[in-house]
Amino acid sequence: xxxxxxxxxxxxxxxxxxxxxxxxxxxxxxxxxxxxxxxxxxxxxxxxxxxxxxxxxxxxxxxxxxxxxxxxxxxxxxxxxxxxxxxxxxxxxxxxxxxxxxxxxxxxxxxxxxxxxxxxxxxxxxxxxxxxxxxxxxxxxxxxxxxxxxxxxxxxxxxxxxxxxxxxxxxxxxxxxxxxxxxxxxxxxxxxxxxxxxxxxxxxxxxxxxxxxxxxxxxxxxxxxxxxxxxxxxxxxxxxxxxxxxxxxxxxxxxxxxxxxxxxxxxxxxxxxxxxxxxxxxxxxxxxxxxxxxxxxxxxxxxxxxxxxxxxxxxxxxxxxxxxxxxxxxxxxxxxxxxxxxxxxxxxxxxxxxxxxxxxxxxxxxxxxxxxxxxxxxxxxxxxxxxxxxxxxxxxxxxxxxxxxxxxxxxxxxxxxxxxxxxxxxxxxxxxxxxxxxxxxxxxxxxxxxxxxxxxxxxxxxxxxxxxx
Length: 469
What we know:
- Helices cover 42% and strands 11% of the residues.
- It is α+β, with helices and mostly antiparallel strands.
- The chain has 2 domains: 6-398, Glycosyltransferase (Alpha/alpha barrel), CATH 1.50.10; 402-469, Maltose phosphorylase, domain 3 (Sandwich), CATH 2.60.420.10.
């Protein structure tokens, strides 16, 4: 069972991190829908819409949360429950040390970016303009407004910075010896904020001038604010070294390198390096160690070409192989303390041309709950995000389905053990059926449309199967 399906799409709920299988996380809703919603977009659009309506129904609570901390717009909580208030704990038990440690994870404000991204993905996949006009645009714009209010201009550099945040990594909560939680200029957040500000223009164009006027009046959004967003989008700060490595956040390069061989030999299972270090009276905040993909998460969300454009607009020039360099750099410093880590890195490994590594990570992710690779956590509930993520990796990374643009693109790269994959999906009101191998794609659509297969546009007629080699 999962916590949302076509049978309960009218219930005010969303997907919890552990489904309905256990007590872990007390049924709270995090950002896992980022890994889950695309599946529902492609298969059960009404259910995906219900998932987003859970967030819209708590928009006022997100506005209150932002105002409480001195921000504008909507700041959604890291852990959401029944009414949308912040449910995140302020202390956390370390089972290795038996001590209660401070927990700053509510500073993972990037959950709002996940919601904004989900709004756009849902609309782009389903073409549900009514949702965007009635609910989605308002929610998206209020999230943009929040990030604008968190962005501060550095007069000396001419760039905007975003402070007091945590990235997806979760092991890094604050600077060493700092008296408060939070980090500055997390690369994933800044890249996604730049993306969101740029996408706001596309959303206003999509909903049309009359609805734009109504939404702007409803939330008192001014043209000056939109102009500010555009300015911030081109001037957000990133820290990049001479090798083209994008720092996870400002100050990351000053951290200590971890002796990975020592800890592997001593503990064997080093997934939760944060708990191991704290049990030895050290802190992960001091070391270059990550629970899961952080800066690299941007490449999971967006096509590399889109990130290339964002980096260019920000005024940064990187080596042609910067993705491979960054993947190699951060993989060496990641402990995979989250099951989601292998899903993300499996896709990134394929992007970087390492098929063997991609398959290894994918296989581990696929069996993570069955093998209980985190040493007892599956008994507290299955990991809904990794379950959906592995299905999507099969469709996107291996079958090569790209639904980020205006037409479906298919460019398969099946694992060596797979001869063929067959599935159906819905995109922009058209139902497709595919049978895909590395050298051949069979496709049937229920309406006339255009797809791109092996880099070439193909015209499909309704209910007529076509084979492309």
